[in-house]
Write a structure and sequence with these properties.
The protein contains nine helices and twelve strands. Helix 2 runs antiparallel to helix 3 and helix 7 runs antiparallel to helix 8. The longest helix has 66 residues.
């Protein structure tokens, strides 16, 4: 009988102990990981494909500088990608730690429940007959203990069933969590390998950058001349825009004044003077232009890029990438297109205000969006004409392609006479 009892208990223990503890987890960081993935995808699309070593000695100062600007942009995007990937890895690590803590807690509960279940089976065995049950109760040291044993034996079958269900559910929970941990570990290991490759390539790029900078510094005179030409072209462009904006504002104010005079012939001279002074200080919008301006303003940070590529020249005062103690004041952004022969596209609905050539800077197009303006410069061909109504995505013109196959668009955003940072308006 004792041998049989040992065999039964051994089978129970094998059944219980043979359960593998497995893991899976709640989606604590699921949303943040999804966001990081989306941003990572955008960053990868933005990064330039620099697969070959740069040969600075075979390039002119202008070409070498363009290569450097593109390389700087690529390094910046790659560093951003590494940072976001690090945060993604950290998120996975936190999930794994949380899941492991949950597994430990569940395992402790499981061990307690397993012991209780084993005790139930043991008591069920030793009290398998009515006589045994009676003797089990009589063996109690007190009346209270005997009563508890009686109650326990009465509900033993149901308790065994419930405990069995509970044990099975706990095993499933542990298994699910362990599976999740294993999956997250695989993802983390994959990301770590990718990150290591990104770091190695980023280091290679930074070494190439150092070589290129050293080479370009020997061409300081040529670089300064190129900078001067670029500045002259930018100044000519800005003067053209400011003059046009002032003329259009004056014309719009005059139209508004005449319309007001027709509607209110009884207006006093003082009121007429006040109205004129107000309207000449800013562009007087029609109802249609007000709607367009409102829509443009609401899309700040959401406007499509005028051309797919990377920003190789940021807005505002920027240190020259080569010349020491030289600060370049960019009146817009320089976007190096990802493909040769790219076209500039309108970022929003509007009306073509002016198409013109820029001395030293090819052609440019100004599109009015109410009291907002967008400027597309460094074009070799223009596809639109003055006064033409256009929609978002309309081809504006073909971007000039340098002899080294670089296609760079100069892009600006204005609000009346105020120059704005285009990077704040384009979609991230």
């Amino acid at each position: 009988m004792k041998k049989r009892l040992r065999n039964i208990l051994m089978m129970v223990l094998i059944l219980i102990l043979g359960v593998n503890l497995i893991e899976g987890s709640g989606e604590v960081f699921a949303q943040s990981i999804k966001t990081l993935k989306e941003k990572e995808k955008k960053l990868k699309n933005q990064m330039s494909s620099t697969d070959k070593k740069l040969s600075a000695t075979q390039k002119s100062a202008k070409q070498g500088l363009q290569e450097l600007e593109r390389l700087n942009a690529d390094i910046e995007y790659r560093d951003m990608l590494i940072d976001r990937r690090s945060r993604e890895i950290l998120g996975f690590t936190h999930q794994i730690d949380s899941l492991n803590r949950s597994i430990s807690a569940l395992s402790e509960k499981y061990d307690i429940k397993r012991k209780k279940y084993a005790d139930m089976i043991y008591y069920a065995y030793i009290t398998k007959s009515q006589q045994d049950k009676f003797l089990y109760i009589l063996a109690s040291k007190s009346f209270q203990e005997g009563y508890r044993r009686f109650q326990y034996l009465s509900s033993l079958a149901e308790l065994r069933k419930q405990q069995s269900i509970t044990l099975s559910k706990t095993r499933q929970d542990i298994q699910a969590k362990r599976d999740k941990v294993n999956l997250l570990k695989e993802k983390t290991e994959g990301l770590l390998k990718e990150q290591e490759k990104e770091k190695e390539y980023a280091l290679f790029q930074k070494n190439e950058k150092s070589k290129l900078v050293a080479s370009l510094r020997s061409k300081e005179k040529e670089l300064k001349e190129e900078l001067r030409r670029q500045q002259v072209a930018a100044d000519n462009l800005n003067k053209k825009i400011q003059d046009m904006v002032a003329k259009q504002a004056a014309a719009a104010a005059e139209r508004a004044r005449k319309q007001a005079a027709q509607k209110k012939k009884t207006t006093t001279q003082s009121k007429t003077t006040t109205t004129t002074s107000k309207t000449t200080s800013s562009y007087a919008l029609s109802n249609e232009e007000s709607v367009i301006a409102g829509g443009f303003e609401k899309n700040k940070g959401l406007l499509p890029w005028p051309v797919k590529g990377v920003i190789t020249g940021k807005f505002g005062n920027q240190p020259h990438p080569v010349l020491k103690d030289v600060v370049v004041n960019n009146k817009g952004v320089y976007i190096t297109a990802s493909v040769q022969g790219a076209k500039a596209l309108s970022v929003y609905n509007g009306v073509v205000s002016q198409c013109f050539s820029v001395p030293g800077g090819n052609n440019a197009v100004i599109v009015r969006h109410g009291n907002y303006l967008t400027v597309y410069a460094n074009l070799t061909q223009i596809y639109v004409k003055n006064g033409q109504k256009i929609t978002k995505g309309t081809p504006i013109g073909k971007i000039y392609q340098e002899t080294n196959s670089k296609t760079v668009l100069f892009f600006q955003v204005w609000k009346e006479k105020t120059l704005l940072n285009p990077q704040l308006w384009l979609k991230k």
